[in-house]
């Protein structure tokens, strides 16, 4: 049986990062995406989107979403 030697390059111990209080930006992005999906679902059957192919619907709904007051990006502006 071989004896273990402590030869070799040693990596320094990593410091633990301090946890930030409050919500993480990732959580905000998830909430914004959920709101966008709900908006798309609610407005998909509107008259202006009803008889369009799916890809065209997505484009129109995206434009509506950008200007919508439901969009969290428009809340601060």
UniProtKB/TrEMBL annotation:
Q: Which domain of life is it from?
A: Eukaryota
Chain residue ranges for the region called Disordered: 1-34
Basic residues biased stretches = 12-22
Protein name, per record: Uncharacterized protein
InterPro entries assigned to the protein according to its UniProt record, in alphabetical order: HMG_box_dom_sf
């Amino acid at each position: 049986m071989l004896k273990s030697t402590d030869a070799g390059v040693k990596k320094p111990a990593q410091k633990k990062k301090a946890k930030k209080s409050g919500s993480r930006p990732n959580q905000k992005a998830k909430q914004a995406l959920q709101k966008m999906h709900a908006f798309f679902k609610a407005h998909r059957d509107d008259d202006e989107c009803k008889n369009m192919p799916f890809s065209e619907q997505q484009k129109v709904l995206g434009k509506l979403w950008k200007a919508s007051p439901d969009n969290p990006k428009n809340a601060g502006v």
